[in-house]
Design a protein that fits this description.
By secondary structure, the chain is an alpha+beta fold. It is 17% helix and 45% strand. The chain contains two helices and ten strands; from the N terminus they run ααββββββββββ. Strands 1, 2, 4, 7, 9 and 10 form a six-stranded antiparallel β-sheet that branches. A hairpin with a 4-residue loop joins strand 5 and strand 6. It is elongated.
């Protein structure tokens, strides 16, 4: 940035100086602003992002037992976190899902499902979290009934294999 062209703000705004000099200085202000914006855009930090998907289907066989899915390690800062899970069931009940920080649940939700065989229940969590010390967040799920037919599904089967259960975070502040 060419700082040798900086002059008093009053002069740049046209509050001082000869009329012809004011127009030149306003042009300099525009050029300076263009330089400052270009420099800021070129040197801005890119947002940090962490994503982890479930690598294989994961059984949820025991009522009330939390089963850990994907995990992400996050540093200090404010993070926008989103989690999605696809739960396959075959027995009527409820499935709870939470984001777990290693000591406690951060936020959670639950959904009910019928006893239909091979029923798919989509679940989503979205929220902001302020992390003061680096920690690992884990997506967990627990069923309300004991059944060998309840599981977290890793990938979709129709339209190509895409992640069906994943945990994502984007840092939005310090």
């Amino acid at each position: 940035i060419d700082t040798s062209r900086l002059v008093d703000l009053d002069t740049l705004l046209g509050n001082r100086g000869a009329a012809g000099a004011r127009a030149v200085r306003l042009q300099e202000l525009s050029q300076f602003m263009d330089q400052a914006i270009a420099f800021a855009l070129k040197n801005r930090p890119l947002p940090k992002q962490e994503t982890q998907a479930l690598s294989g289907d994961l059984a949820l066989p025991a009522a009330g037992a939390w089963v850990s899915g994907p995990s992400i390690a996050l540093g200090k800062g404010v993070w926008s976190v989103s989690a999605m899970a696809l739960i396959k069931t075959g027995a009527a009940g409820i499935v709870a899902m939470r984001l777990f920080d290693g000591a406690a649940g951060v936020f959670a939700m639950q959904a009910s499902h019928p006893s239909t065989a091979n029923y798919f229940t989509p679940m989503n969590l979205v929220g902001l979290i302020n992390i003061t010390v680096p920690q690992t967040l884990t997506l967990q799920a627990a069923p309300s009934v004991t059944s060998p037919s309840i599981s977290m599904i890793a990938q979709t089967t129709i339209g190509g294999a895409l992640d069906a259960t994943r945990l994502c975070a984007v840092q939005i502040g310090d």
